[in-house]
Structure formats: structure tokens, C-alpha cells
Amino acid sequence: MLQTVIRAFRDIFPESNEETKLFFSPGRVNLIGEHTDYNGGHVFPCALNIGTYAAARLRQDNQVNLYSTNFPDQPVSFLLDELFYKEKDGWGNYTKGVLAAFIDQGYKIGKGLDLLFYGNIPNGAGLSSSASLELAVSVVLNNFFSLSVDPVHMAKLSQKAENEFVGMNCGIMDQFAVAMGKKDHAVRLNCQTMEYQYSPLTLTNESIIIANTNKRRELSDSKYNERREECERALAALQTKLDIRSLGDVTIEQFEENQHLIVNPTDRKRAKHAVYENIRTIQAVDLLNKGDIQGFGQLMNQSHLSLRDDYEVSGRELDALAEAAWMQDGVIGSRMTGAGFGGCTVSIVKNEKIESFKENVGLLYKKETGLEADFYLVETGNGAGEIFNTENSVL
Ligand code: GLA
């Protein structure tokens, strides 16, 4: 893998005396706690061992040259004092956005860079390829310009790039998981306070499987932003009586007693999901920490139902995958993961049933949707950073 990245860098960029360094930034999968981050609730993601590799080198001028092996026909170049969003720069806008966020915060980016990316996250699968790219750029900047930005702050700057530069109003979960992931662990994050705890993910008899609908997430950005607005209206309605900062502050009892304040029935359903999913996430992590994997799995299933019926972000393909999974022997739990409207499900499956799971779920899914699903065994990884490897010395 590293050799491929190094070779590609050499092919694309001319020789230089500057040192080239290698970086890796993971993708993420969320185990439970969906659409809770921007509602001040809890999430429970883990970083994956697939993600974005970056090779980077300083330049003597203020030009930035980007090349991605995933978009070989779309190299992007710009000057550091021309950080404007341009439609034609496509994927390159994420790098521009991160540069702009760092510079706006007062960090000095004194020189241009040559940057090559190689990503092995399946495209449009909802496993956070964009956060992975943003954090790859963040760790490159942090390293080359000796900025000493801590990973949580890098996550926030990357989120700012996505919110303000790219226009996707995402919460903090993806960037946090990508920056702070820890191998063999998932991380419970309170998105209101930014307090977090790692939980070991040492499953002995089970594995975590991601199933990809291979349905691209259409309209996901506009629907996502719409959900945010619905929740904001619901919060404002509850705040007329309750002293709360976010839906993450609301208990089930408070919600049940006061939900009548949310007059719009759609907004009420959205808030119901946000409140129940937050409590479910806290309970699920407690169960996992106690070794109750069955209990964790049941809450995963409930999470999917709530996303399907109350939050309405699943869709035919994700429902078909989850419902097929629930019918299989040896399935502890299964749910959609990420923003929804396509993308992936995440399931916990007994080791001896993995093969039958893939076969049966694949067949049922194809019958229902006409599409082929892909399955990946989850391997967790660490957060974004430089790769220190002897292979590096060949650069
Ligand atoms: C996307 C966003 C996250 C989060 C999830 C839903 O992945 O980037 O901030 O809101 O959707 O849980």
C-alpha cells in the first residue's frame, strides 16, 4: 500500500530536495447514536483501518497542487491566497476548506504543498471519506508547519471546513472519530460537552460487519440539513417550558410529559428519535462495557426502527439490508449507520455465521432491490497521523 502511494507521488510530482512524508487518516463506522451529534447527544463510533493515505511535501512558492489516485482526471491547483470554493475543483474544495479554516484561526501556513491522496474507503458509502480527507489535510498542516494543534481542535477545524466551505451542516461525530480513533476501541462522545471515554471492542465470539447497499446517497445533504432544522424547531418549542440546551439534555420522562409543546407532528417525531436515541446510546455503551453484547444488539435494532419510522432517514435499501439481517441466525444486532438515505448498515454477527450471513443477506437484498451488496469485516484503527515506517525511508 505505502509503496503504491510513494510510487504515485514520484510519478506525479517532480524531484525536489524537500522531505516527503506519509500520513494516514481513517474512515469511521458508528455503532450507535445516529443523528444525535448535532442535537447535543451521545455517539459511539470507531475508526477503521481503511481510509485516506496522503504523501506530502513542502514547496518553495505558495502554490498547492493536489492529486488523488481516486480522481486521476481531476488534479487541482490553487494559490494559498486564493482559497475560494469553486465547483470545478470538486473534491479539492475539502482541502481548500481545511486550509481556510486553519488560516482563519490564525495559524501560519507559510508555503505551498504538493499533496497526493490515495483512498480505499468505498465511494459514497457513508463511512466518512470526506472527514477522512479533511483530517488527512489537518495532520499534514499540523506536521509541516509545526502548529501543535491538538486532535480535538483539528476535528473542529475540519468540521468548520465542511460546514462553512463545503456547505454540509454536519455535526462533530465523523471528524472526532477520525481524529481520535483508537485501535480495538470505540469512543463514546458527549457532543454537548465533548467529554469522551473509550470502550474496548474485544469481541471474542462475534465480529462487526459492514454491509454496503451500493446505493449512492442521493439528496442526502439537503435532507440532512432539513432534519437539523426540524430538530431546532422542536428544541425551541420545548425550551418554552424546559431549561435545556439541546435535545441531548432531555430525559424520556421530560419528553413524554412535554412533547405536546411541539405542535408540528413531523418535528415531534424527529425530536422523539433524538431524545430516545441519545438515551439508548448511553444504555448501549453501559451494556457493552458489562459484556452484554445481546443487550447492545437489541438496542442497535431499536435504533434502526427509530431511524426508519421517526427520523425517516433509512429508505428501501437500508431497510432491506437490516430486515434481512434480523432474519438470520447468529445476528446479535443490525442497523443503518451514518447519515442514511443509502450507504451502509453495521451488524454484529457470531463468527461461525459470518459466511451464511453474507450469502443469505446478499440474496435477500438482491431479490428485494435488484442490487448487489458488499460486505466488509470491520477492523478498527487509530486516528489520523503521520506514518512512521521504514518503507518511508525510500522517499
Ligand atoms: C453524518 C454527519 C455526522 C452525523 C451523522 C448521523 O455522518 O457527518 O455529523 O450527524 O451523519 O449520525
How would you describe this protein?
Residues 285-360 form the GHMP kinase C-terminal domain. GO terms for molecular function: ATP binding; galactokinase activity; magnesium ion binding. It is found in: Cytoplasm. Belongs to the GHMP kinase family. GalK subfamily. This is Galactokinase. The protein is an alpha+beta fold. It folds into three domains: 2-200 and 381-394, Ribosomal Protein S5, domain 2; 202-222 and 313-378, 2-Layer Sandwich (Alpha-Beta Plaits), CATH 3.30.70; 224-306, Alpha-Beta Plaits. It is 41% helix and 21% strand. It has eleven helices and 13 strands. It has a six-stranded mixed sheet with strand order 5-4-6-3-1-13, sandwiched between helices. A hairpin with a 7-residue loop joins strand 4 (63-68) and strand 5 (76-79). Helix 2 crosses helix 3 (129-144), helix 2 (92-104) packs across helix 4 and helix 3 crosses helix 4 (151-166). It starts with a helix and ends in a 9-residue tail after the last strand. 48% of the residues are buried. The mean pLDDT is 95. It binds alpha-D-galactopyranose (GLA). Alpha-D-galactopyranose (GLA) binds at residues 34-35, 37-38, 170-171, 173-174, 338-339.
